[in-house]
Design the sequence.
């Protein structure tokens, strides 16, 4: 495993102000894997990523990168980190920034030049790499940040919200580049609120909730599962709870309920149950299970506590 | 038994060059440094118009101001500091490399200014020594602000450096007299004046060729770079454990 978190806890503050951002978190990621980290705001995603990048130390537990403790120099040299927001000196041009970073890992000027050229291709920076970073748009900065992390040619890429705030074309490009880096053997850990993008990109997704790992699922498994979505009339919405009592894995949606088709449950059976409960079903559909279902379910469980 | 060989790692020359270039760029591209350079040029022109009057103090003040303001930018909190940490080079690399970059930028300016001031003042024969003393003083003051910037911020560090550069020509005996009525303040001020890398030391070295002055100024370059390296290793949140310091 390239990245291993073993019962990692990170707390901030002391005494009454002590707040646990990450609580006994366990997960690992191997070569060529793209691990998505999802969760609501404050779930501990950025803390986890900063722990892997070595910018924070664990209060207890252990984070290992390669065979080194995270935060040590050998471990930090194995990580390319894109923080949110990305960090780059606005006084420099993109080319100067990449030259600086490439120089940190190259043994010869030729190697440095090769790395820079490769990174420019990764970020498709050709049209603006010579301009000052201060003049870049958000999408340009994100692309430069990915190129800057890639130019270090580290074994682990840690990307915090690299897909956020960019147009669909740039996002598509970034996704393709991250996937191509992973195919080259790089281990990618990526946090994002864009669940649909992560479903397409990640091989595995870790769901964080209030600092704890709630689920660790393979996206391929998600594709094997189905969810029945029922749209209920306004009178049915009030009585939807009775249906959810029959199917505890189900959750409310805006206009009805969503129930995972697990353990032999069929759509017909759910519709029959709805008829039994005298619920007015105005529409139904079956779709793949999505990350959103896991998050919504977690929120419902938390609310019911 | 085979003799043990001393395994010396080769210097990461490209990384050193990268840090030096980045240091020079960070200094050149910041508006505070450019503004200081403009004011320094003005002071130099005025001094030249007056026949190079008081050339060593003028040069030390100009060099000190430039080094203090530029030095505070090299590891300023934000991208400059984070880049040093993410590069994950040897501990000394970022502070030393960037300081070298700053000095490479300052050296020609100070040597030319020393030559011009010496020529205007009647051809002072030791303009090389004057330039060298100004450069050593600038290096020490630059290292001091470099060390302070990660912890206290670039503005505070630059301000402290500027004060040192502008008032550093006062000798400790003058400071002693200035605070005659406040014994505690007097003690603190005189101690600080004796310890800090101020221009009165560079002026005395130029005049008397005293070794302790060179040692103190040189020590500040080393101490400043080492403290800056420590601050870089502490990480973003001042997290010593993340950097393996505890």
Sequence:
């Amino acid at each position: 495993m390239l990245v291993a978190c073993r019962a990692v806890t990170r707390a901030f503050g002391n005494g009454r102000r002590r707040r646990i951002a990450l609580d006994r978190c366990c997960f690992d990621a191997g070569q060529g894997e793209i691990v998505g980290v999802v969760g609501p705001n404050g779930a501990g995603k950025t803390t986890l990523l900063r722990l892997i990048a070595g910018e924070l130390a664990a209060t207890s537990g252990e984070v290992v990168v390669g065979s080194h403790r995270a935060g040590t120099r050998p471990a930090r040299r194995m990580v390319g980190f894109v923080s949110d927001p990305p960090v780059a000196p606005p006084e420099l041009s993109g080319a100067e920034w990449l030259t600086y970073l490439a120089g940190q890992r190259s043994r010869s000027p030729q190697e440095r030049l090769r790395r820079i050229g490769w990174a420019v291709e990764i970020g498709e920076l050709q049209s603006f790499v010579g301009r000052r970073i201060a003049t870049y748009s958000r999408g340009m900065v994100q692309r430069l940040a990915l190129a800057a992390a890639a130019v270090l040619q580290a074994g682990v890429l840690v990307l915090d919200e690299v897909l956020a705030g960019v147009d669909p074309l740039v996002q598509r490009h970034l996704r393709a580049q991250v996937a191509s880096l992973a195919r080259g053997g790089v281990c990618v850990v990526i946090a994002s609120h864009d669940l649909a993008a992560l479903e397409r990109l990640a091989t595995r997704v870790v769901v964080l909730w209030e600092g704890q790992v709630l689920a660790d699922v393979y996206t391929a498994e998600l594709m094997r599962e189905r969810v029945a979505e029922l749209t209920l009339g306004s009178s049915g919405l009030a009585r939807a709870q009775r249906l959810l009592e029959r199917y505890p894995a189900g959750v409310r949606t805006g206009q009805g309920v969503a129930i995972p088709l697990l353990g032999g449950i069929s759509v017909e059976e759910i519709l029959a149950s709805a008829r039994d409960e005298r619920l007015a079903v105005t529409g139904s559909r079956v779709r793949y299970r999505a990350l959103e279902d896991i998050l919504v379910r977690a929120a419902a469980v938390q609310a019911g506590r | 038994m085979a003799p043990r060989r001393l395994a010396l790692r080769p210097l990461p020359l490209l990384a050193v060059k990268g840090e030096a270039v980045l240091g020079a760029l960070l200094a050149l591209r910041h508006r505070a440094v450019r503004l200081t350079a403009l004011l320094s040029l003005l002071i130099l022109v005025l001094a030249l118009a007056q026949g190079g009057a008081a050339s060593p103090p003028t040069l030390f003040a100009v060099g000190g101001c430039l080094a203090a303001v530029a030095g505070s930018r090299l590891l300023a909190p934000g991208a400059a500091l984070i880049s040093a940490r993410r590069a994950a080079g040897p501990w000394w690399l970022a502070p030393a490399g960037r300081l070298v970059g700053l000095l490479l930028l300052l050296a020609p300016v100070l040597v030319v200014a020393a030559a011009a001031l010496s020529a205007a003042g009647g051809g002072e024969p030791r303009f090389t020594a004057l330039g060298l003393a100004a450069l050593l003083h600038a290096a020490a003051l630059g290292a001091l602000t470099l060390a302070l910037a990660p912890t206290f911020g670039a503005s505070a560090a630059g301000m402290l450096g500027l004060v040192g550069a502008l008032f550093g020509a006062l000798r400790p005996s003058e400071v002693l007299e200035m605070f005659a009525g406040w014994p505690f303040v007097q003690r603190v001020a005189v101690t600080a004046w004796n310890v800090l890398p101020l221009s009165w030391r560079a002026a005395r070295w130029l005049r008397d060729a005293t070794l302790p002055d060179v040692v103190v100024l040189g020590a500040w370059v080393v101490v400043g770079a080492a403290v800056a390296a420590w601050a870089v290793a502490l990480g973003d949140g001042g997290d010593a454990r993340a950097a393996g310091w505890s």
